[in-house]
Structures are given as structure tokens and as C-alpha cells.
Amino acid sequence: MFFVFFVVQSINNMLKVGLTGSIAVGKSFVVAVLKELGCAVFDADKIAHSVMTPGKTAYEDIVKEFGAEVLAQDLTIDRAKLGAIVFADATRRQRLNEIVHPRVIAEQNRLLAEVEAAEPNGIAVIDAALMIESGGYKRFDKLIVVYCERETQIERLMQRNQISRADAERRVGAQLSSDEKRRYADYEINTEGSFAEVRERVQRVYESLRQLQILPA
Question: Between helices 90-118 and 57-66, what is the axis angle to 10°?
Fold first, then answer.
């Protein structure tokens, strides 16, 4: 949704791959295919969500910073309400990242350590929308950028979130454009076209990554 990428420390021989792209470009499908192919995949947004649950320190700090207006009836954080606030104000978006950031660092490193212990020569993929903006992409061995045409992106976001075009354009504009992100890519995956076509592109990237990985003799 709106959370930055979080720092990942080097973990032995594991191939660490960053995967990014602007909102609603099709990252979730690409990540799902990579998982099917055998990669260990982690969603920075889901990890951020997990550290924002009631009882966690991030939850307490968010409520203190943004007020009870961001809470749902069950007192969990309503991410739609919180997102509406931070997408409209870069300063408040930065403050949210400052609150959530350190908690996700710790959780992400814990999860990656588990993967490394189980499969030291595997491939771990971290999916995070803002890893280029944060500079975190530099921590990875390789970076995949997922993209589509801007009009496709806006239409997907409108349909997915049931929001107006103006709201979708504002959210898209809050992040680096796909063209800018592609300048940093080691691999690019275009999600225009059919699922089968996109799956084939992901397969090709995966095969390239496996060729880079040092496997036991």
C-alpha cells in the first residue's frame, strides 16, 4: 500500500532479490508465480501490517500520532483511513514510515534468517513498493521492477480499490513513475497482456536468477 522498503542485512549465500513497482502494476501476481517456482517471498506491506496489530508498539505509536480516527470499530487500524491521510500528506507519510520502519526491519531479518537456515543457497524475494525511494534496493543482489502502462495502472487501481480516477491518479503520483523505477532494474517484468504471457516473463527471470545462484556441487 504505502509502506517503504525496509533494510535487509546480508545473509550468507542466499540470493537476495528486491522486487518493486508502483502501486497496482501487478506485483502480487508476479510474486505468486515466483513463489510457485520455489522462491521464498515476503511482502513488506504484510509484514508492516503484522507489526501494527493491537498490542504491538507500532500500533500504540500510530494511534498516538494519528488519533483514534484511524481505528476501525474493532479497534484495529483501518488501513484505508490511514492510507487516505498519508497519501495526501508527504510529511505524515514519512512519519508513518518512521514509526513502522524499525519494527519491520527486525521482523524481516528474523524471517530471512529462518529461510537461510533451511535453504542457505535459495532465493529470497522481498516485495516492497518503495524500496527505490528509500534507497533500500542497494542492499539486494538483484532488483526486479514490475511495470505496466500508466493508464492500465490507474484503471487497475480504480477497480481494485473502488476509488475515483482523481484519487487513483493522486496515489499513483505519490510514487516514482514506472519509467523512473525501470532505470534501476536488473530485470523488468511487463504485466501488460494475458496471465499466461506474464507468467512466461516471470519464468524467464526466475531461470536467470537460478543461473546466478551458486548451488552445491
Answer: 170
